[in-house]
From TrEMBL:
<keyword id="KW-0539">Nucleus</keyword>
<dbReference type="InterPro" id="IPR034138">
    <property type="entry name" value="NOP8_RRM"/>
</dbReference>
<keyword id="KW-0597">Phosphoprotein</keyword>
<dbReference type="GO" id="GO:1902570">
    <property type="term" value="P:protein localization to nucleolus"/>
</dbReference>
<dbReference type="Pfam" id="PF00076">
    <property type="entry name" value="RRM_1"/>
</dbReference>
<comment type="function">
    <text>Plays an essential role in the survival of diffuse-type gastric cancer cells. Acts as a nucleolar anchoring protein for DDX47. May be involved in regulation of gene expression at the post-transcriptional level or in ribosome biogenesis in cancer cells.</text>
</comment>
<dbReference type="InterPro" id="IPR000504">
    <property type="entry name" value="RRM_dom"/>
</dbReference>
<dbReference type="InterPro" id="IPR012677">
    <property type="entry name" value="Nucleotide-bd_a/b_plait_sf"/>
</dbReference>
<dbReference type="InterPro" id="IPR035979">
    <property type="entry name" value="RBD_domain_sf"/>
</dbReference>
<dbReference type="GO" id="GO:0005730">
    <property type="term" value="C:nucleolus"/>
</dbReference>
<feature type="domain" description="RRM">
    <location>
        <begin position="8"/>
        <end position="89"/>
    </location>
</feature>
<dbReference type="GO" id="GO:0003723">
    <property type="term" value="F:RNA binding"/>
</dbReference>
<protein>
    <recommendedName>
        <fullName>Nucleolar protein 8</fullName>
    </recommendedName>
</protein>
<comment type="subunit">
    <text>Interacts with the GTP form of RRAGA, RRAGC and RRAGD. Interacts with NIP7. Interacts with DDX18; the interaction is RNA-dependent. Interacts with DDX47; the interaction is RNA-dependent.</text>
</comment>
<keyword id="KW-0694">RNA-binding</keyword>
């Protein structure tokens, strides 16, 4: 039986320039099911790689996440020193959640207003009778 797994988004900093998605997929798939790897390279004005980091989506149990962090964080690997942590929620993701909750709240309010209107109309009809 597999432990309860949750999809987590990891930030992996300190990567070497020559890192590939396959390298990261192989390294992290030992701990869980990797569904997506996004490598980002920040360059200076001359076009030289200044920072290389990645975001990894992984379905992982809490115990395996702790093992992954303790085994890989601050280790030297393929020309860099890994810095692993849970990724912060992106601004765009927060906006989607906020807009979805606002739409849900608006829908609930509309339902309540409609129900209240029907209730008042039915009371008015009963009073006329």
């Amino acid at each position: 039986m597999k432990a309860n797994r949750e999809t987590k988004r990891l930030f992996v900093g300190g990567l070497g320039e020559a890192i590939s998605k396959t390298d990261l997929q192989n390294q992290f798939s030992r701990f869980g099911d990797v569904s997506d790897v996004e490598i980002i390279t920040r360059k200076d004005e001359q076009g030289n790689a200044q920072k290389v980091f990645a975001y990894i989506n992984i379905s992982i149990a809490e115990a395996d996440l702790k093992k992954c962090m303790s085994m890989l964080n601050k280790t030297k690997w393929k020309g860099g020193t890994l810095q692993i942590q849970l990724a912060k929620e992106s601004f765009l993701h927060r906006m989607v959640i906020q807009r979805t909750s606002q739409r849900t709240l608006s829908s609930l309010l509309m339902v309540r207003v409609t129900q209240r209107t029907h209730l008042l109309k039915s009371k008015a009809v009963q009073e006329k009778s």
